Amino acid sequence: MADVDFLRDLGLSENTDRIKGIIESVLFVVGDGIEIKELANIVEIDVKELKKILKDLSEDYEKENRGLILVEYNNKVQLATKPEYSSYIKKIIKPESKQNLSQAAIETLAIIAYKQPITKVEIDEIRGVRSDRAINTLLERGLIKESGRLETTGRPILYCTTDEFLKYFGFKNINELPELIELNLENEEE
């Protein structure tokens, strides 16, 4: 990496292009998301400079003729294919037949996303029905995970969303969830 330091010292634009190439290579090989801080260490630049280069690289990918995009979530970054090319990718990669989430699973996922960390009993109380099956489905799909245990009688499991949840819905972090609007039926009836 001494040649990267040399180019950086000279302040040449080749430095940015070379770093972009290194970033692409690392992201391609890793396949999954990588912490931005870890990537900065690998490339041997500070996080602030890396974020500028990632923004520039992302703009390069936004051009119409490019097939990739940069996805950022939970301070991680990952290379992904553009959604509009999914039909071509499906021709070569036969995805496992995944069924859509049931209404119960979607309700459960929404409750977990907005109330996390949350226990199964709390989820059941909000939904008004048992959520065992929905929770198991969401765990199997990797959209939620066990995040510890509540320090109370029985030590119930706490659930929270995963990075897979963020990637699936296109959020950088959980703070990007749309604002929750609680319905007050009594006020509506008046």
- Helix content bin: 40-55%
Number of domains: 2
The top level CATH class name of the largest domain: Mainly Alpha
CATH superfamily membership of the largest domain:
Winged helix-like DNA-binding domain superfamily/Winged helix DNA-binding domain
**What is the residue-averaged pLDDT?**
84
Counting DSSP E segments of at least 2 residues, the number of strands comes to 6
| CATH topology assignment of the largest domain | Arc Repressor Mutant, subunit A
Low-confidence stretches: 6-12, 185-190
Mind telling me the C-alpha Rg? 21 Å
Write down the oligomeric state. single chain
Strand content range? 5-15%
- How far the N terminus sits from the C terminus, by CA atoms, comes to 70 Å
- Principal-axis shape equals elongated
Largest sheet: 3 strands, antiparallel
Class by alpha and beta content: alpha+beta
Strand order of the largest sheet: 1-3-2
What's the SSE pattern? HHEHHEEHHEHHEEHH
Number of contiguous helices: 10
Q: From the 3D coordinates, which CATH architecture of the largest domain would you assign?
A: Orthogonal Bundle
Keywords: Cell cycle, Cell division, Chromosome partition, Coiled coil, Cytoplasm
Family: Belongs to the ScpB family.
Coiled coil: 40-67
InterPro entries: ScpB_csome_segregation, WH-like_DNA-bd_sf, WH_DNA-bd_sf
